[in-house]
Amino acid sequence: MSNPFKTLALAGVATLALSASALAEIKLGATISETGPASFLGDPEAKTLKLLVEKINAAGGIKGEKIKLFLYDDGGDPNKARTFATRLVEEDGVVAIIGGTTTGTTMAVMPVAGENKIPFISLAGAIEIIDPVQPFVFKTPHTDKMACEKIFEDIKKRGLSKVGMLSGTDGFGASMRKQCLAVAPAWGMTIVADETYGPKDTDMTPQLTTIRGKEGVQAIVTPGFGQGPAIVTRNYNQLSMTIPLYQSHGVASNSFIQLAGAKESEGVRIPGTALLVADLLAADDPQKKVVTEYKALFEGATKTPVSTFGGYAHDAFAIFVDAAKRSKSFKAVDLRDAIEGTSKLVGTTGTVTMSAKDHIGLDLSSFRMLEIRNGGWTLVK
Amino acid sequence: MADFMQFALSGVTVGAVYALIALGFTIIYNASDVVNFAQGEFVMLGGMGTVFAHQAGLPLPLAALLAIALTAMIGIIFNRLAIETARNAPVVSLIIITIGASIFIQGVVQIVFGKQIYRLPSFSGDTPIPLFGANILPQSLWVIAGAIIVFIALWLFFTRTMTGRAVLATSNNRLAAQLVGINTNFMMTLSFGVSAAIGALAGVLVSPITLTSYQVGVPLALKGFAAAMLGGMGNPKGALVGGILLGLLESFTAGYLSSHYKDAVAFIVILVLLSVKPQGLFGTKTVNRV
Known about the structure:
Number of strands of chain B: 2
Shape of chain A: globular
Helix content of chain B: over 70%
Number of domains of chain B: 1
Radius of gyration of chain A: 22 Å
Order of helices and strands of chain B: HHHHEEHHHHHHH
Structural class of chain B: mainly alpha
Helix content of chain A: 40-55%
Number of helices of chain A: 12
CATH topology of the largest domain in chain A: Rossmann fold
Strand order of the largest sheet of chain A: 2-1-3-4-5
Strand content of chain A: 15-25%
CATH superfamily of the largest domain in chain A: Response regulator
Strand order of the largest sheet of chain B: 1-2
CATH class of the largest domain in chain A: Alpha Beta
Distance between the termini of chain B: 56 Å
Distance between the termini of chain A: 74 Å
Oligomer: heterodimer
Number of strands of chain A: 14
CATH architecture of the largest domain in chain A: 3-Layer(aba) Sandwich
Largest sheet of chain A: 5 strands, parallel
């Protein structure tokens, strides 16, 4: 009889070899809102994932394994997102899930990921996703709270402090409004007006008139996404208002300038990602290479301009690939540990360093304060 | 005072949008008692059609005309394929068919034109016009003028023309209308064509203000429907007054009470009014003779 340890080791190697040949490909799941109210987020996200999977497979995959992408369209419906997440885990047998375009769909997928111990990288904004930290849940976008802080930091730099808020009542706007109200005192901000508008409203001049009438108001902050912020910007011009206007990262894309109009959006400031201003970045900027490459890939294949949202999907996929390369195996639990160990990974949104306590891994420096000038973006120094 | 004027102008602007859409409901309702929930899609088609025709290089007026004509065609096809084939179904079934058509049209537009939000350039620039200390955009004047012109045209049509009366007769009693020599099928085709055209015209006029996308129709149609109910379904005067009233209610609530309760207050007022006057402000009581 030979050494029992040797047999065990051999058996182990055999199992590994077996499982490796059985898993001829890495199964990656995604549930994205390609259609529905959040489609302008989900559409570039889905396109990005498909492009990147194609690209990495053409280059030989990860450690010789090809990635197989299981992509479902949940239409922004949390119930569907949950059903698809369950299908991804139980039928498709994926080792990780990317997606949850909106906070609502993300919240629906989180318990499925947690129960089945499958790492889940969300593409949604709200801070509740990673605070408190759940072992299997990660996310790539900046949080609403960071956007508020970035805006307040800039307002403070201008020597102003009295802020009027005009928030959308959609999930994004409502969540960011809450965060802004919460962090305002820490940045020395006084909220002198707190107005809202419905996501389908077509005129916000009454709210702006009310804000304008508040004693000493010095700046306007407008959390929201979709058409609302563009209409707010147009109404702001209609009322000939001049105090600084801040929009949120929810509308940080070129289509915002088109919708609001170049003349109307002149001087509007938005916290955005490096991706939007790829051309303006200094040559030695750490993000320059990543954002330029992604921009070229996406715009070359889709003939549409890149958006921050596609960038979130890019980063989620980059985190997954980076983790898979470092991971002991392609098993879900090992991948989870590897994702948590992500360090100094440069993405389109920022440089990501995760830890057991931080499942987003970004800081304020990754937000760039942008200002719209002559229908284009400029970096605020 | 300047604030009051600004709220009023905002209310009238938004109200005119609602009124234009509410007016689109009246013809089909008058011809068939059907509330056409695809009316919002006609508005969307008008806006989206103009955006794409304009992008393709047509001058704006021509693009708008083309979009309106195409939408009218779609209205007629919709009637021919979906409504006429189910002619003997109860009104409720027909209304549900219009909801189905609405979802279908949205789906097709989403695939053909994509999911982006678009804006039409304003017809007369974006320089605000000062008015008693408040500002109004030139495009708002276009919308208000459009609502008034469509209202007058519809009012004349229903009260002064034989065809208009024939449409009303078709709705009142289809068989009797046929017996006196009215081509009821043609009246239905006409009503869908004209309704779709009015919807599309509304879409063209409001798109510079409200922006447009494949899913802009439903929320606009719901507000237009609420306005039509408030004023009295089927009555052009009701649509106009109901729309403006709803717009004013919303903007004054947002201005003086709180923007958080804007929609709630507007709808509570509508509910209270309808419980007192179920036919709306200008609606006529339907009397069934036995």
